[in-house]
Amino acid sequence: MNSIYDMFSMIILLSGIVLIANKRSLSYIRTFQVQSLVITIGALIMAAETQHLELLIVGCLMLFLKVIYIPKYLRRTYNKVTHEIHKDFYLNIPILSFIACLLVVICYISIYQIPLISAKGVVTPLSCNLAIVLIGLLFMISRKDALGHIIGFLVIENGLFSTALFTTRGMPLIVDLGIFIDLLTAIIIMSMIIFQIDTKFQSTDTDKLHNLRG
Amino acid sequence: MTTLITYTFLQIIIMLLLAPLPTGIIRKIKARFQKRRGASIFQPYYDLIKLLKKPQVTISTTSSKVLVLTPYILLGSTLLAACLVPLSTKVTVNLPGDMLVLVYTLALGGFFLTLAALDTSSTFGGMGSSRENTLKSIIEPALIIALVTLAIYYGSTDLRKIMIESANSSLSIDPVHLLLLLALLMVTITETARIPIDDPSTHLELTMIHEAMILEYSGRHLGLVELAAYLKQLIYITLIANIFFPHDQLISFGGILGIVLSLSILVLKVIIISIILGLIETNTVKLRFFSIANYAALAVILSLLGFLCVYIF
Fold first, then answer.
1. For residue B242, which of B152, B166, B180, B151 has the smallest C-alpha distance?
2. How far is CA B16 from the centre of its chain?
3. Which of A139, A173, B11, B271 is the most buried (most CB within 10 A)?
4. With contacts defined as CB-CB under 8 Å, which chain B residues touch A4?
């Protein structure tokens, strides 16, 4: 049974790498959606296996929030933002994906140093999912687009959730609920800020925030 | 020795008969998705027979022997490569050669094709061979890392041993397999000049890669070059089908019946993979030439992660 969760971790890691290699804002959103869907399926399978009601509730919430609602909201935001930016990353994609690969190795090595964890056989899920957190950070700092920053933030959250899910069978329900509500508020506020940036600066490029106005 | 010769002969015939089928299926799927009825899936066979019946005409007076010899060298090396792919583990004949021989035998034909394209010194030929070589060199790391990883994982570079080991390992899905499968699928799409990389159905000057190289060929020589391209596609598809989706552990009995059953399942798998390739082709758009580096980087990363998986996870 453990190998299924290894597999899910690997698919999630794969979606992270694909995310890094994506070029357009709409494909970021789609990749994030697929990643959330994979985590949701993992959570539901685990709920069926362990018979935990909490996991089932969290899985359903994930499905509603991260697979359906947030991507739809972000797409709407993207369609309303009128100014597109063209080259929106600092390094080119091959270098970024090699850095992502390096992050996986770093995660693995640092986790392997901890003696108890390496004995317990959760090395693959733990290192893959922690690598997702780092890949989300890398994604955030490598994109200039404000929408990319939101996706990076969401991917970090996905990574934390899946780390908890695949290594310790999920966090308590109350913690997850708190995180989801925080996430929803954060996304709504950030989308509003994107509108503000777009109308004030005629672009969602965060590099241009240095420019003086007035 | 005689069994080896008989077996090789039979394998060549099977591969030749099966070779144009994936292309026919992919075209059919594509036509269906475009709301057309599309040609029959046996259309590539008819085209091939028509081309092979025609006489060869070489108009160019400046080209050398390379142009004339290349179709034969290409088809010969591809046929040699086709002999090296094990079709079924039920056959107990040990084929000579391994995966590295396979890859570089295929590369030999490709090398001569680029030479032939340069030989006529037409502008498109030069452009096509330049692009083809660029593609080959940026996608080759992915292919080689993936194959070497398989060799390390299963302890042999012999494709037949890899197949047997893969069939014997448990049926649960393996992360290494997933990563290498995706990498090899991306390599297959590149090597067989399918859509995200190259559109085989256009002769649009600015985007064609493989078509630009074979532009100077007509008649029987064109038929040979096309047949070699179909065979190469079949080789990659068979490789994917046999390594990642082994089926021989499901057949308990041996003998002639076992071999026939195993081969028919193989044909079924080839059809399924062709359908998947067709679906990929209808759902993606052709990449800009300068974006192909990103695609290749993704393929290399996937096989590199697979390699790391073997060692560290």
1. B166
2. 13
3. A139
4. 172-173
Specify the 3-state DSSP secondary structure of A145: strand
Point out the residue among B172, B173, B293 whose CB comes nearest to the CB of A94: B293
Q: Give the model's confidence band at B170: pLDDT under 50 very low, under 70 low, under 90 confident, else very high.
A: low
Q: What is the pLDDT of residues A168-196, one digit of tens each?
A: 888 888 999 999 999 999 999 999 988 88
Closest CB to A21: pick one of B178, B294, B312: B294
Residues from chain B contacting residue A11 (CB–CB below 8 Å): 178
B209 pLDDT tier (thresholds 50, 70, 90) = confident
The two three-digit tokens of residue A157, written as one number: 């959250």
Q: Which residue has the tokens 């390699």?
A: B307
Q: So what's the ipTM on this one?
A: 0.84
Tokens coding B89: 């583990």
Domain residue ranges in chain A: 2-210
Cross-chain CB nearest to B301 (options A7, A97, A112) = A97
- Chain B positions with Cβ closer than 8 Å to A: 172-175, 178-179, 182, 291, 293-294, 296-298, 301-302, 304-305, 308-309, 312-313
| Among B80, B243, B241, CA closest to B158 | B243
Give B75-117 pLDDT, tens digit per residue: 999 999 999 888 888 877 777 788 899 999 999 999 999 999 9
Cβ within 8 Å of residue A208, ≥6 positions away: A201
In angstroms and rounded to an integer, the radius of gyration of the C-alpha atoms of chain B is 19
Nearest to B240 by CA among B299, B292, B177: B177
